[in-house]
Amino acid sequence: MATQPNASNTTVETATVQIRTLNVGTKQMTQGIFRQLIEAPAVNTEGRVQGQPWGAVNYHPDRCDDAKEHLHVVWQLGDQLRRGFVLAPEHAYLRHPLVAEYVTARIYEGARRDTPRAEHGDLKVHRSVTTREIGATVYIRGVRFAGTVRPLALSVFDRTSYDDQAERLPADFEGAYQRPLRSAAEVAELLPVEAYKAAWRELSALPQLFIGR
After folding, report:
1. Could you tell me which residues come within 8 angstroms of residue 75 by beta carbon, excluding any fewer than 6 positions away?
2. How far, in Å, CA of 124 to CA of 118, rounded?
3. Is pLDDT at 205 greater than 70 in this prediction?
């Protein structure tokens, strides 16, 4: 039979907890002041933390508390503070100049709208109804990237079979970007997948900063 605990052999250990507050001068920063901070990406297009991160704030000023996993980071740019909204890698929307080449290569190599789950992950291409810009999002090894592609890429992506339009993709890309179209596998290795994951880990480990109302 297990021995039941009693008062004579029970102790209470007291832990010291450090509460970090975010202050402006001698006063604690309020939610109103936090909202006034200029919002700027805490992670650059190469997936790296930029500036000096101070900490994370568990306050959602833009009604994003029910959004995908994310952080609100306070970071320093020069002598000024910024606040950054950072999404977890699988929900990220990291824009990178190589996305156009990667997506074009994927489409040239056979990705079509009826086969959205291909070797390197989910691929979506669509035209914005407001800006008419052709946007693309793609998951590469657990990180979501975004960019824009040319109209021909969307046209080929919408088709269900390889045809003469697809054959024109390399020349169309080279004419627009002044370089030959590489393979999707080659471009995927150049995208900052691991850098973004490392940035997310670094920012997730930041201390929590408390602000007043």
Report:
1. 42, 49, 50, 51, 52, 53, 54, 81, 82, 83, 84
2. 11
3. yes
Nearest to 89 by CA among 69, 108, 74, 109: 69
Four-point Cα dihedral 14, 16, 17, 23, nearest 10? 140
- Residue 96's pLDDT is 95
Backbone angles phi, psi at 123, to 5 degrees: -130, 130
| Other residues' Cβ atoms within 10 Å of the Cβ of residue 55 | 17
Q: Each residue of 143-172: pLDDT tens digit?
A: 999 999 999 999 999 887 778 889 999 999
How does strand 134-140 pair with strand 94-95? unpaired
Task: State the pLDDT confidence band at 118, using cuts at 50, 70 and 90.
Answer: low
Helix residue ranges per DSSP H, 3-141: 31-36, 99-108
| Mean predicted confidence (pLDDT) in 73-89 | 91
Is the pTM higher than 0.70? The answer reads yes
Matching residue, tokens 């999404």 = 87
Q: What φ, ψ does residue 10 adopt, rounded to 5°?
A: -110, 130
Q: Of the candidates 125, 129, 128, which has an alpha carbon nearest to the alpha carbon of residue 159?
A: 125
